[in-house]
Amino acid sequence: MTTHQLPVLIVGGGIAGLSAAWELQRLGVPYTLLEAAGRLGGKIGTEITPDGYLIEQVADAFIVQKPYAEQLARELGLAPHFIHPRPDTRHLYFLKRGVLLPFPPRLKLFVPLEDQSFLDSGVLSPEGLRRFLAEQEVAPKAPTTEDESLESFIVRRFGPEALDFVVPLMAGIYVAKASELSMQAAFAPYLEMEQRYGSVIRGVRTAQRELDNQPARPVFLSFQGGMQTLISALEQQLTGDIRLNTPVAEVDDHAVRLHSGETLQGRAVIVAAPAWKTRELLARTQPAAAQQLAQLRANGSVAVALAYRTDQIAHTLNMHGVIVDRQEDTPLSAITLHSSKMHGRAPEGGVLLRAFMGALEPAEALQAAQREVARLLGVTGEPLFSRVLDWRGQNPAYQLGHLRQIERINAALPPTLRVVGASYGGVGIPDCVRYARAAAREL
């Protein structure tokens, strides 16, 4: 058998590995996908309880501004299953000094689209609010190729107090320290706005005025049956050689050695696994790349899903969730009310929420989540059930210089070996899909 008759070998059956397989299938290229676990999907998974609660393991939706995941879903015929966050409950609260304040209206992530409502919000001190809006008068930084942390960027443009409001929104997406999180890797559009418009606020407002002249589109998209719908559709429509319960011991540019001792030959290899695992797989065969992979770090988080009856909760349920001020004395960083945010996430009379607790031990996180949710939302009685979702040490940390480090990793790899996934080009589902499909096309 010639090299071009061999399959592309894909290590990892999460969304990145499955997306690479889908692209190869569309191109008519044979592939073999190897997954160590007994199921596909990686972090993406949905549990539906017998009484009708729908619990997402990690992501509950994906952003549509980056079109790659939506495009994949449409190719799979999933458009009839699309749902979006409910507009009638699109309210957030901001926890500051123990008080739940209504979130400022007319906000684009953290950027106010108008001045007065932001000044009236109370999410910062009066001086902090004025300094935040004065970003429009701050001169842009001279163009540079040097990276900058989120903390440095926010303080420079919006003032030091702005960190208390912005960091829970921005760094929370990446479960990262603001002083270490790379702007180039995580929030490059804001750097571009600073250079193009001289102000992030002006840039966001200009973009919003253009959007206001177009048909309104929801920001996020999910599926009636949960995010597992996307994984199940891929599993059903992929026709290549997919092997579950097949852990890989070692990877090279044209071969994969399994834990069983069997060696598979391929025309090329795509490793769609976390960086720490990929480093282990390449340690002997590609030591230079493994050494570069060792420079990537991961952060941890634990989320706690809790279910209640509506009559157990005194606070209004007409909201998507709560964001917590950075200075607040609590291990809680955010709450999402899934049953209010999306239709079909809880049965009639039921409430499903998820509390994000940082990197606490699971048992401690469960106790703290119940305590904090009860305190803030006026909960009485015990939850109907709980789930602790433990992702400690498994959240990629896009530290300063991340993009240059990825360049060094790719430069150390041979032409027929690619690494893809959340560790490298974006923690969200759309970016995982985008870069995995690109790698498949390149190979």
Topology at a glance:
Blueprint: E1 8-11, H1 15-27, E2 31-34, E3 46-48, E4 54-56, E5 62-63, H2 68-75, E6 82-83, E7 92-96, E8 99-102, E9 107-108, E10 111-112, H3 115-119, H4 126-133, H5 150-158, H6 163-174, H7 183-186, H8 188-197, H9 200-212, E11 220-223, H10 228-237, E12 241-243, E13 248-251, E14 255-258, E15 263-265, E16 268-271, H11 275-282, H12 287-293, E17 297-299, E18 302-309, E19 321-324, E20 334-337, H13 338-341, E21 350-356, H14 362-377, E22 385-390, E23 395-397, H15 402-412, E24 417-419, H16 422-425, H17 429-442
Helix pairs in contact: 1-17, 2-17, 5-6, 8-9, 11-12, 12-15
Defining key terms:
alpha+beta, FAD/NAD(P)-binding domain, protoporphyrinogen ix oxidase, domain 3, 3 domains, 7-stranded mixed β-sheet, globular
Helix count? Answer: 17
Which sheet architecture does the biggest sheet show?
A: 7 strands, mixed
- Strand tally: 24
Indicate how many domains the architecture comprises.
Answer: 3
Placed side by side, the strands forming the largest sheet appear as 8-7-19-20-21-18-22
Beta-strand percent range:
15-25%
In the predicted model, the low-confidence regions spanning at least 5 consecutive residues are none
What does the radius of gyration come to? 23 Å
The CATH class designation of the largest domain is Alpha Beta
CATH superfamily of the largest domain: FAD/NAD(P)-binding domain
Percentage of residues assigned to helices: 25-40%
Amino-to-carboxy terminus distance = 19 Å
What is the subunit organization of this protein? single chain
Mean pLDDT: 94
The CATH topology assignment of the largest domain is FAD/NAD(P)-binding domain
Judged by helices, strands and strand pairing, the structural class is alpha+beta
CATH-level-2 architecture of the largest domain: 3-Layer(bba) Sandwich
* Principal-axis shape: globular
